[in-house]
Task: inverse folding
């Protein structure tokens, strides 16, 4: 059975999603994280916030998890918004988790924490990760490189590097930039 043959409501009920363009509500931080499951215990909200590397900045907010954030997360940085959206997506514990460039606004250390957390999720799920940073996808079981909606390369990180194609070129450019940053910061 193909995806098109599934009932759209049933399909949506099995997918958790976090996108680069974050949709947050004028509600508490707790309410935003628990949006997909209003009965989510506060301990679980905190657990998912920790997995998404959001707990530390939430604790520093005026009212912690009870802090009301404005519509679309006014007053939060792009990275903070992305981490709240990621916590919400993980909290619904669906069998499919789609992450659309959800770490683009975070630093590499935070991204590494998030990647580690995704590997430790308690509920089994298939993760579809859309990203521009190779560090985000390097440990994936299967990587697809798209150009104008068509797959131009496919394989594991090691296989794609060995082919020395587009993926390899991007890897070299991104790592050259990191090497320059490390040298500059000394």
Result:
């Amino acid at each position: 059975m193909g995806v098109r043959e599934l009932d759209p409501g049933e399909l949506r009920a099995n997918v958790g999603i976090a996108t680069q363009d974050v949709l947050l509500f004028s509600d508490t931080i707790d309410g935003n994280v628990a949006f997909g499951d209003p009965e989510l215990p506060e301990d679980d909200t905190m657990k998912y916030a920790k997995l998404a590397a959001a707990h530390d900045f939430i604790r520093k907010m005026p009212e912690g998890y009870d802090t009301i954030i404005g519509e679309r997360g006014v007053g939060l940085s792009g990275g903070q918004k992305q981490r709240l959206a990621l916590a919400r997506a993980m909290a619904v514990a669906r069998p499919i988790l789609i992450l659309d460039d959800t770490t683009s606004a975070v630093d590499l250390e935070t991204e590494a924490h998030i990647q580690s957390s995704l590997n430790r999720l308690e509920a089994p799920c298939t993760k579809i990760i859309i990203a521009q940073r190779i560090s985000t996808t390097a440990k994936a079981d299967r990587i697809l490189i798209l150009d104008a909606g068509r797959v131009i390369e496919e394989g594991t990180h090691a296989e794609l590097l060995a082919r020395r194609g587009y993926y390899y070129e991007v890897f070299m450019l991104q790592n050259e930039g990191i090497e320059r940053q490390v040298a500059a910061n000394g």
